[in-house]
Amino acid sequence: MKRLFLSTVMIAAVGLGAVAAFGQAGEDDVAARQAKYPLAAKAGEDSHAIDRAPKGAVNQGKFDDKTWKFGKAWDAPAGAKIWNPVKLKMMQGGKVTGGTLFSATDPETYCAMANAGYDFIWTEHQHNARDWKTTERMWAACPYAKAVPGVRVAYTDEREEQHALDAGALVLVVPTVRSYEEAIRARDWAFFPPLGRRSNGGGQAFALWNNVPGGYRATINDNLVLILMIETLAGLKDADRIAKIPGVTAIFAASGDLGNHSGYDGRVHLNDPDYEREINIVHDAAIKAGVRLCGPFAWVDRPDFTCFQAGTESAAITRGVKAELGKLGDTQPVPDVGPWAKK
Question: What domains lie within the chain, and their CATH numbers?
Answer without folding.
Answer: 85-326 (3.20.20.60)
